[in-house]
Design goal:
Chain A is 54% helix and 13% strand. Chain A is an alpha+beta fold. Chain A has five domains: 135 residues, Arc Repressor Mutant, subunit A (Orthogonal Bundle), CATH 1.10.10; 80 residues, no CATH class; 52 residues, no CATH class; 113 residues, no CATH class; 71 residues, no CATH class. Chain A is globular. With 383 residues, chain B is an alpha/beta fold. Chain B is built from ten helices and twelve strands. The chains are: A alpha+beta (511), B alpha/beta (383).
Chain lengths: 511, 383
């Protein structure tokens, strides 16, 4: 007796083999068959069957359920970056859909395994999430549901204050281990930093007067000493880590904050590679399905559902579509040699159109791209004017007079800049801790690095309260609003804001 | 590659899963209700709720449920889209609604949640600290009814649930492996049998009637009517939450009174003078003809701008209330809405004559914001 489960298991094996033959390299992948409601629950939990108790998962669940009820969206696939990779199939989908999902999933899984930005993620996150749940439950048992929940609420409010590049940095300046080793080499490093112009020995005292050298040396020493007293030593974007290390937290609070931070870092690469990851998966499911997997009678169903995934609603851009088309574009360009100095400098349109050096490098190139890029570098490197034109992309802006979004231009550079802006730090503002002992009063001073867009003041004031609750002492946020620099403060009782002026004490660092 | 476990199929037990998210979901609902409570004053003034009934879902915008983050403000309203259009053309799919295309719009921080009117009435009750109404008289006796709503493994054969029995037998045979699809013979054994079981539900048998009376004389404008509509809607919602069966009667009056249906009540625009006693007379007739005070909890609400034609008519009203009506009704509520024309004297007459009676309750509603307090005044005694 062959039931659906056996059929699906056979299919999964067959498609895995096809995918491997095509060059994909993925973790062992386990599929689970779930009903749609379970799927929604798992989706609400961010893909995991176990999370710590928190109402926002319930909120997420309600949203998904409503979407489903109103027919606004249906979750087809879900895959977790883990080794082994876990993926979910919705039980009542047709076999064609399941095949499509499987092919898609294997490509995601290949991306998780091989993309550099995922290389530092915990591959045992399934277990880790379950551990987090247990730890939080234990804290709840000990310290009460409400106090833990309130604390989590505060932490969640800050969970975008991370630095996605931190996992890739080698920490040469761990503030705790530094001092002794650093002091030893202080004089030597100062000596290295002192500016001496190259000179003949007999000119030495005139070109580099000893008094000047001494002054430089003293200044540098002073600065070094001052910077050692600064907390943090340099502006810190990993605000969560800074709080874990320096805020007066109870053990359980530090533990919860660390959990939230770890989960934020786990999800960060998925935010950094949304377009690429979906594009890659779509590129492969379409390639594998149409060349190797589908039977003749499935082609219509497949085409229908595939076009559903990559459809661009009028006016919108769909990451699946942009991603897959960019990958195809790259493959085509490298196959035909449409890149490099020679091609760029070709001024004849006719020649450029026919350009084909039959290099056949496309396949290698797309694999290379999926290994080293993230969305920002992907768009930066591979978005071409021709591509923007082909997909009729435009930049839009809110027009206050008509109170709606209007097309502002179709200029390649502007569109690219706008896209990059939206992708950089996935549309989250850059917030730094610039002083952990502001005005020598133990107050926390944070600063927003302004890059053209203001912070939402209302939200910032609310969020600042949550920062203060962790820091206990007053918390400040410096932010540029309407071209003026403001300082927002919450001291535990009341919020206030003021213009930054010369009489205010200066923080340890400026951005 | 032989040791790879590609395509290993797992089935997750949905029952075990659902429990966990249910807790989070319930907690979320609880938080939402808390937010609604905080904003209740505002919801009470929302006219579009009118017409909803107990189990109807109401979509309510709730502020501040989602956790605040540092995020970009509204001058981030730009993005990249794709499609036709010259510079200056609307960027959305042509509906011009101002909805941002693309996923970059931060949205307006407001979340729509759905609650039933019953839940909303409960929140109203909790927030206003309204006591549950204690129905009067001997008719607070509850009636028992048996409802067949469950399944159990023992019971009389007459209640055997054939389908369930069959299903559990089938399941058992499938698991045991002695089910043959070519020869599907299902033989239930004792343990497979399932029986219907019943639960006794207690139903309070209290009935209530609400008589709404409204002054529709020339001085009652649309604004006043809107206030009455809202006030009446919430009175209705709260009472319906407290009684099983509720009947509503509607009376309008100027110098004459007439009984009308609900729709007419709220939309009728009359003209002319005011004689409140006409309405009270009709109300008395209605109550005496059909609603035995021993059987019914009676609520009478009168809405007016307090401008009666003569002082003597006002006194007549009070007399009528005192002598004939008040002893039979739970609450007489008089709600006076502010009007640009009237003297608004009726409320004073009531105070003068009926002040010592505790089932006479008056309130003034000048703006929509007063509805909150008015409702509280009417029901805080739990009658």
């Amino acid at each position: 007796m062959t039931d659906m489960k056996t059929i699906l298991a056979d299919e999964a094996r067959r498609i895995a083999d096809i995918a491997r033959t095509a060059g994909l390299d993925f973790f062992e992948t386990r599929f689970e068959v779930v009903d749609f409601d379970t799927m929604q629950q798992i989706a609400a939990y961010g893909g995991f069957p176990q999370r710590y108790p928190h109402w926002r998962f319930g909120m997420e669940y309600e949203k998904l359920r409503k979407q489903h009820v109103y027919g606004l969206g249906k979750i087809y696939e879900m895959v977790i970056n883990n080794d082994p990779c876990y993926a979910y199939l919705v039980a009542d989908n047709s076999l064609t859909d399941q095949r499509l999902v499987m092919a898609h999933v294997y490509a995601h899984c290949d991306f998780f395994k091989n993309n550099y930005w995922f290389s530092k993620t915990n591959r045992k996150m399934m277990d880790e999430m379950a551990n987090h749940a247990t730890r939080v439950r234990r804290h709840i048992d000990r310290y009460g549901f409400e106090s833990v929940e309130r604390f989590i609420d505060g932490c969640i409010s800050l969970d975008n204050l991370i630095d996605p590049y931190v996992p890739f940095m080698r920490r040469t300046t761990d503030p705790r281990s530094m001092p002794s080793a650093d002091q030893m080499s202080d004089s030597r490093s100062v000596e290295r930093d002192v500016v001496r112009f190259e000179t003949k020995p007999y000119m030495k005292n005139w070109i580099n007067p000893p008094s000047n050298i001494k002054k430089q040396r003293d200044d540098l020493m002073k600065e070094k000493a001052a910077s050692r007293r600064r907390l943090p030593e340099r502006p810190v974007r990993d605000v969560l880590q800074f709080l874990i290390e320096n805020a007066p937290l109870e053990d359980w609070q530090a533990d919860i904050l660390a959990i939230i931070r770890e989960e934020a870092y786990y999800y960060a690469p998925q935010g950094q590679t949304k377009i690429m990851n979906e594009g890659w998966a779509t590129y492969w499911h379409s390639k594998l399905m149409t060349t190797r997997i589908l039977t003749d009678d499935e082609i219509i169903t497949y085409a229908d559902h595939h076009s559903g995934t990559v459809a661009m609603a009028p006016g919108q851009i769909n990451p699946y579509k942009i991603g897959v088309e960019l990958f195809r574009d790259i493959e085509d360009r490298w196959n035909r040699g449409r890149f490099g100095k020679e091609f760029e400098e070709c001024r004849s349109l006719e020649e450029a159109r026919k350009w084909d050096k039959k290099l056949g490098l496309g396949r290698d190139k797309v694999f290379e791209v999926r290994r080293i890029h993230n969305d920002v570098t992907f768009i930066d490197e591979f978005l071409t004017p021709e591509f923007v034109e082909r997909f009729k992309m435009y930049q839009y802006r809110y027009d206050p007079t008509t109170r709606r979004m209007v097309v502002v231009n179709r200029d390649f550079e502007k569109i690219k800049a706008q896209l990059l802006f939206m992708l950089a730090n996935h549309a989250q503002p850059y917030i730094y801790v610039v002083d952990g002992n502001y005005a020598n009063r133990g107050e926390l001073y944070m600063a927003h690095k302004h890059n053209g867009v203001d912070l939402d003041i209302k939200f910032a004031a609310e969020t600042l309260k949550n920062v203060q609750r962790l820091w206990k002492r007053p918390a400040h946020l410096q932010a540029q609003i309407n071209d003026e620099m403001f300082l927002f403060t919450f001291d535990g009782n009341q919020s206030q804001q003021q213009r930054v002026h010369a009489d205010l004490p200066r923080p340890a660092h400026t951005l | 590659m032989a040791d790879r476990a590609d395509g290993l199929m797992h089935e997750r037990n949905p029952a075990a899963m659902s429990l966990k998210i249910d807790k989070d979901h319930q907690r979320f609902r609880q938080i939402v209700k808390g937010k609604i409570r905080d904003d209740l004053r505002r919801f009470l003034t929302r006219g579009e709720l009118i017409g909803k009934e107990g189990k109807n879902l109401i979509s309510i915008p709730v502020r501040g449920v989602e956790t605040p983050h540092f995020r970009y403000g509204s001058n981030n309203d730009g993005g990249v889209g794709a499609g036709e259009g010259k510079p200056g053309d609307p960027a959305s799919g042509g509906d011009g609604s101002g909805q941002a295309p693309g996923g970059s719009n931060p949205g307006n921080h407001i979340m729509e949640v759905e609650v039933t009117l019953d839940e909303l009435a409960d929140i109203l009750g909790e927030e206003l600290r309204l006591p549950r109404i204690k129905p009067k008289g001997k008719h607070t006796i509850t009636s028992e009814r048996d409802r067949y709503s469950g399944i159990r493994q023992t019971g009389p054969e007459s209640l055997r649930h054939f389908k369930r029995t069959y299903r559990s037998a089938l399941r058992r045979q499938l698991i045991a492996g002695n089910y043959d699809p070519k020869n599907p013979r299902i033989v239930p054994i004792r343990a497979d049998r399932r029986y219907r079981s019943w639960k006794t539900v207690l139903k309070p048998q209290s009935n209530a009637v609400i008589v709404y009376m409204m002054d529709v004389s020339g001085s009652m404008g649309d604004e006043q009517k809107e206030l009455v509509r809202l006030e009446a809607f919430w009175i209705d919602a709260w009472l319906r939450r407290n009684y099983e069966g509720i009947e509503s009667r509607y009376i309008v009056h100027d110098v004459r009174a007439a009984e009308v249906d609900r729709n007419t009540f709220f939309h009728l625009r009359e003209d002319g003078g005011t004689k409140i006693s006409s309405a009270f007379k009709l109300c008395r007739q209605v109550l005496e003809s059909r609603y035995d005070p021993q059987e019914w909890n009676v609520y009478v609400f009168h809405f007016s701008d307090g401008d009666n034609s003569s002082e003597s008519d006002s006194r007549e009203c009070c007399r009528m209330l005192k002598e004939h009506m008040l002893k039979n009704i739970n609450v007489f509520g008089y709600c006076q809405v502010a009007s640009a024309y009237g003297s608004g004297n009726f409320i004073n007459v009531i105070h003068e004559h009926l002040d010592n009676l505790d089932n006479v309750i008056t309130s003034r509603v000048n703006t929509k914001d007063d509805i909150y307090d008015s409702i509280k005044t009417f029901f805080s005694k739990g009658r």
